[in-house]
Design a protein that fits this description.
alpha/beta; Rossmann fold; Ribosomal Protein L25, Chain P; 2 domains; elongated; binds adenosine-5'-triphosphate; binds magnesium ion
Length: about 550
């Protein structure tokens, strides 16, 4: 991977100081700890870039650890997708792929240690009673009647929980901390619950499973993590993590919290994303409209455009929402330099050039990328019948319309000047085709010797040589800038964008695009950046996804409203 410039931020400042103080012997060891209960999204990409990026820049290590403590919601499909997505982003964890479930034995031992110390007890309250005992932000909690159970009784009951003697929900193991703590996390939190479910890795070995909070901090400790980087919502869990590790007398990583990524027109909640998949609003987790890493990949984003975006938004201590345009600009900027430019007519209108000889075709020279002349040039065929974009002709042109209109002349990119002589309509009065004449003295799209000039240049495709693709125009999945802003009694799905996908079946491409390989990216001149779909595109039968328009079109709409 290319070395990227080192950003500076408050986390790196802390690490610099730790290294200067010789803390952890100067070691830097981070981890990325997803729960395999869904596909990774762009928010996870931020967390990945932070933890893996720091390990890379400080010559440290970053582990990939699956926090798989909830057997009911987890699945190997998710495990595999996470592995693929982190690799695709350009990061590697070597042989350090870990699973919290690999630590179930150790966690069980640690739980016993706490029971023996009189720091954990088996509680018989029902989930509902426990909830009522917990108190609120303003009212203290109430102690469980089982809080003073003897160590012997607790050991016996916990062992019988493990053996499966009790029903789900009938008992839990709790830490004995402080029911009066202002921090609700410290009010005797649950450490273990009974779940008679098979786990995707440990099978039926266990019917008790450790809670996330108990598992997470101990897993970090077992792996010798020095800096445990996580999002702000875990700030109030930190005292609990410290309590567990101090009571157990084991290595204590330093937890540092940063703000989650939020993006306009987007939801980054696995629960909502799962719902979109389940209710078939989208075609799957990798639907090009999904904010998942696999969705962005299929949409046509590159790993570097996502990494650059993450560097650009930086790391802060306060929550904010980033405009989707920032991410779009990151891929625009990259593709502007790298993507070859081709001609494609998305919504075609036929033009007949009446003074061009029938049956004749000629090759014209076209530059592949004016931003990168090393990309060379290619030949494109020109003939008597061509397609232009429907919106490039107006029968009654508005003021300052420099494209094609009756009696008006325009430049065909790399070809000739043409002038509209006649509009042919069908019975219903709909425009069928346009008749034009061309000026042979403008070959290559150059100005004629008489010094005549035109203001408009449009793209075109020779009808006889055109390739017919399927083109999928993607747009924001949510029309609302903030999808979570919905009227009472409604849900987030009222904010979906009904026009997030438009499928074009009559588009026409220049012939060079016939043999495009799945995954290749191009700019369709004036129309946007596109990728040949990884799943559906085939040589001779291309399917193109629009990655992004050439410019931000939503900005204008939002400014107006
Ligand atoms: P949930 O816990 O509800 O399943 P999650 O989004 O927290 O969802 P995890 O798999 O636990 O999912 O997340 C793994 C890591 O990614 C965590 O360290 C978490 O803090 C980080 N992360 C999750 N969402 C974001 C986000 N929007 N921005 C930055 N980091 C995130
Ligand atoms: Mg989480």
């Amino acid at each position: 991977m290319e070395p990227e410039k080192k950003p500076s931020n408050f986390i790196r400042d802390i690490i610099d100081q730790d290294i200067a103080n010789g803390k952890n012997g100067g070691r830097v060891h981070t981890r990325f700890p997803p729960e395999p209960n869904g596909y990774l999204h762009i928010g996870h990409a931020k967390a990945i870039c932070i933890s893996f990026g720091i390990a890379r820049d400080y010559k440290g290590l970053c582990n990939l650890r699956y926090d798989d403590t909830n057997p009911v919601k987890e699945d190997v499909e998710y495990v595999d997708s996470i592995r693929e997505d982190v690799h695709w982003l350009g990061f590697d964890w070597g042989d350090r792929e870990y699973y919290a479930s690999d630590y179930f034995d150790q966690l069980h031992q640690h739980a016993m240690t706490l029971i023996k110390k009189g720091k954990a007890y088996v509680c018989d309250l029902s989930p509902e009673e426990q909830r009522l005992h917990r108190g609120t932000l303003t009212a203290p909690g109430k102690e469980s009647p089982n809080r003073s159970r003897s160590v012997e009784e607790n050991l016996d009951l916990f062992e019988r929980m493990r053996k499966g003697e009790f029903a789900e929900g009938s008992r839990v193991l709790r830490a004995k901390i402080d029911m009066n703590s202002p921090n609700i996390n410290m009010r005797d939190p649950t450490m273990y619950r009974i779940k008679k479910a098979s786990h995707h890795r440990t099978g039926d070995k266990w019917c008790i499973y450790p809670m996330y909070d108990f598992t997470h901090c101990i897993s970090d400790s077992i792996e010798g993590i020095t800096h445990s980087l996580c999002t702000l919502e875990f700030e109030n869990n930190r005292p609990l993590y410290d309590w567990f590790l101090i009571e157990l007398g084991i290595h204590r990583p330093q937890q540092i919290e940063f703000a989650r990524l939020n993006l306009t027109h987007t939801v980054l909640s696995k629960r909502v994303l799962l719902k979109l998949v389940q209710q078939k609003t989208v075609s799957g987790w990798d639907d090009p409209r999904m904010p998942t890493i696999s969705g962005f990949r299929r949409r046509g984003y590159t790993p570097s455009s996502i990494r650059n975006f993450c560097d650009q938004i930086g790391v802060a201590k306060f929550n904010s929402t980033i405009d989707m345009v920032v991410l779009e600009n990151s891929i625009r900027e990259e593709l502007n330099k790298t993507a070859p430019r081709m001609m494609a007519v998305l919504k075609p209108l036929k033009v007949v050039i009446t003074n061009y000889p029938e049956g004749k075709a000629e090759d014209l020279e076209a530059v592949n990328n004016p931003e990168d002349l090393s990309a060379g040039s290619r030949k494109i065929p020109f003939s008597r019948e061509i397609y232009i974009e429907e919106e490039d002709f107006r029968e009654v042109p508005p003021p300052k319309y420099f494209r094609l209109a009756p009696g008006q002349e325009v430049r065909l990119r790399y070809a000739y000047f043409i002038k509209c002589e006649k509009v042919i309509k069908d019975h219903a009065g709909k425009i069928k085709e346009i008749h034009c004449t061309y000026d042979p003295a403008t070959r290559g799209g150059n100005n004629p010797p008489d010094g005549r000039k035109v203001k408009g240049t449009i793209h075109w495709v020779s009808a006889e040589h055109a390739v017919s693709p399927e083109v999928r125009l993607y747009d924001h999945l949510f029309a609302a800038k903030d999808p979570n802003d919905f009227p009472e009694g409604k849900d987030i799905f009222v904010n979906l964008n009904p026009n997030s996908l438009e499928i074009l079946k009559s588009a026409k491409l220049e012939p060079a695009l016939a043999q495009v390989k799945a995954g290749e990216r191009v700019q369709f001149e004036r129309m946007g950046y596109f990728i040949a779909d990884a799943k559906d595109s085939q040589p001779g039968k291309p399917v193109f996804n629009r990655i992004v328009t050439l410019r931000d079109t939503w900005g204008k709409i939002e400014k107006k409203s």
